[in-house]
Write a structure and sequence with these properties.
The protein is α+β, with helices and mostly antiparallel strands. The protein is globular, with a radius of gyration of 12 Å. A hairpin with a 7-residue loop joins strand 1 and strand 2. The longest helix is centred in the middle third of the chain and has 13 residues. The chain has one domain. It is built from 2 helices and 5 strands; from the N terminus they run E-E-H-E-E-H-E. Keywords: Plasmid.
């Protein structure tokens, strides 16, 4: 695993049908195993993943929990506004 910050960029997208989504970009240095680990962490915290378009969790604890667990696993994240 590469220790660099950020390794994923998450950008809020305007709601299309009343639901916000997140466009996710992975750093090129991430392996398929790294991506799988990141996505497993995201699903654990309530994200719904459809390729690089994620639906955020309904829980207010989901995003901070996701970011904290990513950091503990050695991954960085950056959330950007649309």
């Amino acid at each position: 695993m590469i220790q660099s910050n950020p390794l994923i960029i998450v950008k809020w997208q305007a709601p299309t049908v009343g639901v916000y989504t997140l466009a996710v970009r992975y750093a090129e240095v991430l392996t398929p195993a790294d991506r799988a680990t990141i996505e497993q962490i995201a699903v654990k915290w309530g994200f719904v993943i459809d390729n690089n378009l994620w639906t955020p969790p309904e829980s207010n604890e989901g995003i901070p929990g996701f970011r904290n667990e990513l950091a503990r696993a050695g991954y960085g994240s950056k959330f950007e506004e649309e």
